[in-house]
Amino acid sequence: MNGQKLKKENWTETWTSAAAAVHGSIKYTDKNYLDLVDVMGLTGHAFRINIDKKEINVAGPTSFPGGYLLRKNLTNLGFISNLADPTVPVPPDKLEQTIALIQESIDRGIPAIVFDLFIPEFGLIYGYDDEEKVFHAKDSSKDGVVSYEEFADARGVLYTTTVGESLPHSKYEMLRMALETILDHAHGREWQAVFKGKYDIGLKAYDTWIKVMEKRCGDANGNSYNIQVVSDAREFAAKFLHNLTIKWDGTNIVERGVRKFAGEAAKHYEEVASYLVEMRELFPFPHGGDPSSKENAERSIELLKRAKEAEKKGIKQLEILLDFMKNYYAEKWVN
Question: Which CATH number describes the domain made up of 80-164?
Answer without folding.
Answer: 3.90.70
